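B., you asked whether I could sanity-check this one before it goes into the benchmark set. Here's the sequence:
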Amino acid sequence: MTPDDREPFLEVVIGFAELKGKALSAPALELYWNSMQDWSMTDFRAAANHLVRACEFMPTPKDFEDLRRAGRPTAGESWTLALKHCGSAIQCGQVTNNGTCGDEFIDRVVRAIGGYGAIAMCDTGKLHFLERRFAEHFEALQDAGDVRASVPRIAAQGRLNGATSMAKLLERFTPPDGPHA
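And here's what the prediction gave me:
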């Protein structure tokens, strides 16, 4: 949203609060505004129109984000695309772990479970085990991606990058007066 969207945005949020019997303080309105900055006003209004009908209580920014996530492909839909790619690759005699189904995220998840070659060569009766692993990796990578996109500086602080970062991590656990034996 842009600064010009602030007034219409606040009108919608305050209208929500009135409909749900709530009163929002200035700090609460500011938090709401700040958390919704990556939305367009058009998308926000569309989501608000849905949530006013669907939510029993005052919707939070999380309710808006849940709507956005609902529009993404599910793990099951993505697994179907991965299997379709494997079938096409087998027919062409090109089963490798370097293939791509055309969706970068699905390709990353497939690499995490061993690659397209592992799927293509799996016994049909055991394919459900790979599907379960795929779904687990799908959810984990999607959650990590969401956090990294939302708060990149905070998310990056938790990563280890070589010996220097490991030394810094160990410093946190070493008492100020040195290690004790």
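One thing to flag: The chain has two domains: 3-70, 73-181. Otherwise nothing jumped out at me.
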